[in-house]
Amino acid sequence: MTSVEEKTIFEKIINGEIPADIVFENDIAVVIRDINPQAPVHVLIIPKRRIDRIEAAQDGDTELLGKLLIMARDFAKSHNLTEFRLVINNGQQAGETVPHLHIHLLSGRSMAWPPG
Ligand code: AMP
Fold first, then answer.
1. CA of 90 to the centre of ligand 1 (A)
2. Which residues are catalytic?
């Protein structure tokens, strides 16, 4: 997995080094539209402070992690979404491609379970 020394695409977006469709930003996180959407609504909630993945989260990150979920709630509410899915991929086999923790919020179509 990529080391913390190497900047991720999300850090470059957060730093303004590369453009993104930022739909919301506050002091702790950004919400951007996924470049390769898997549903009519597909955004990523990304903490500004990098945590590689959920397995790397510390007990001290509890408040931050909670706030990210509240941001997902607020995004859904402000976009009148009552049916949506939140996903965090941890590790390559689970579908992780960017080693910077993020929550996917997907909505606008029916979804299967179990996921592929
Ligand atoms: P994951 O596979 O869970 O690590 O999710 C990474 C997500 O980031 C994928 O859904 C990609 O489509 C998305 N992504 C990669 N590069 C960009 C970018 N420049 N702007 C927006 N989304 C991106």
1. 14
2. 102
Locate the domains of the chain by residue range: 9-107
- Measured from the Cα of 87, ligand 1's closest atom is 3
Residue 10 to residue 101: CA distance in whole angstroms? 9
Name the 3-class secondary structure at 110. Answer: coil
**What pLDDT tens digit does each residue of the chain (116 aa) get?**
445 568 999 999 999 999 999 999 999 999 999 999 999 999 999 999 999 999 999 999 999 999 999 999 999 999 999 999 999 999 999 999 999 999 999 999 999 999 98
CB 24 within 8 A of CB 71: yes
- Closest by CA position to 100, among listed 90, 110, 108: 90
Give the type of residue at 98. Answer: V
Q: Give me the CATH topology for the region 9-107.
A: HIT family, subunit A (3.30.428)
